[in-house]
Write a structure and sequence with these properties.
Length: 318
């Protein structure tokens, strides 16, 4: 399995298993089949509501797969951005996952919510970034890293503008930015920025997720990526599947991919995507598919007279 080296010298496996919307009753089979297939990286988050179930599976799995061989990521939810709330949130995640350290902890969104709010329903549920600046949340993340309970820290859904501001005050630079990335959302600005600043990108929704792209630069709704004729043609050429092409496309650019599945056959299929090598012509064809599409457009944070807007959330980087 390909790895990418982070500034701490640690190596993040290029392929991980996503767990958003993985129902508790399907988690055991999903994680165990992923480990059997060769995955060593699991992407979690407190807000997915399934960390306790994942923890129970990991406890069993450690008999066969030692903790040190696995890479576990989790994410700080928006309601714990106040510096005094970061360590308690991380402690809860560690307890739920049954771990004494995480390999990577991310600020899930550059959005602050009041303590206890999962998703905002009124203006009162929000805190502004003036009230809880990202740099103060980051300082608390750095404290967690200094304690050794997270080996690497990073962010998710941060524009390069927000990353630039963070880098100007950070004692520990963010190792990773986890963002939506697939052929309809190629994130060229982020890719160039990440190379320059030694930040590893992780692609979420690498298969186009289950939803349609809601926001596109071209104002149209594209067909599901897994059924795109050009992706299918490339897959046929290599004797592979569309999902494998989408995963190989990311890894070829040194981007971590975290496809989610709870279906053992698909989990194995996706793993084989990490062994597929696309050629320059395949990459040229896929490069043409970019349309600034977003499946996860953060709209949920822009409702109810929110201080957050589509514009200030993404800083115009689509
Ligand atoms: N940081 C963030 O804000 C953020 C946002 C979204 C997601 N994420 C992370 O990124 C992970 C991946 O994103 P995602 O779950 O939204 O989307 P995704 O991985 O692009 O797509 C998942 C969907 O594709 C299906 N699938 C998986 N493999 C397949 C295959 N080989 N053929 C056909 N269908 C296949 C899955 O179905 P089955 O499960 O039924 O097989 C599921 O419905 C998440 O699980 C989560 O860990 C992070």
């Amino acid at each position: 399995m390909k790895h990418f080296q982070l500034p701490t010298g640690e190596k993040i496996p290029a392929l991980g298993l996503g767990t958003y919307l993985s129902p508790p009753e399907k988690i055991e089979r999903a994680i165990l089949s992923a480990l059997d297939a060769g995955y060593r990286h699991i992407d979690c988050a407190a807000i997915y509501g399934n960390e306790k179930h994942i923890g129970a599976v990991l406890k069993k799995a450690f008999n066969q797969y030692p903790r040190k061989d696995l890479w576990i990521t989790s994410k700080l939810w928006c309601d714990a951005h106040k510096p005094e709330d970061v360590l308690p949130a991380l402690t809860r995640t560690l307890e739920d996952l049954g771990l004494d350290y995480l390999d990577l902890y991310l600020i899930h969104w550059p959005v602050a919510l009041k303590r206890g709010v999962e998703l905002p329903e009124t203006r009162e549920d929000y805190l502004t970034l003036e009230e809880v600046p990202l740099r103060t949340t980051w300082r608390a993340m750095e404290d967690c890293a200094d304690r050794g309970i997270v080996r690497n820290i990073g962010v998710s859904n941060f524009s390069t503008k927000k990353l630039t501001a963070l880098l100007s005050t950070a004692a520990i630079p963010p190792a990773v930015n986890q963002i939506e990335m697939h052929p309809y959302q190629q994130q060229r600005v982020q890719v160039a920025f990440a190379k320059k600043h030694d930040i590893t990108l992780t692609a979420y929704c690498p298969l186009g997720s289950v939803g349609e792209a809601r926001t596109t630069r071209k104002g149209c709704t594209p067909p599901p990526l897994l059924k795109h004729p050009l992706i299918m043609t490339i897959a046929k050429k290599h004797g592979s599947t569309a999902a494998q092409v989408l995963i190989a496309w990311l890894l070829k650019q040194d981007i971590v991919a975290i496809p989610k599945s709870v279906t053992p056959e698909r989990i194995q299929e996706n793993f084989k995507g990490s062994e597929l090598s696309l050629d320059a012509n395949d990459m040229r064809v896929i490069a043409e598919l970019d349309m600034g599409a977003r499946i996860i457009d953060g709209k949920v944070f822009t409702l109810h007279n929110s201080p957050y807007t589509f514009e200030n959330l993404w800083d115009g980087e689509c």
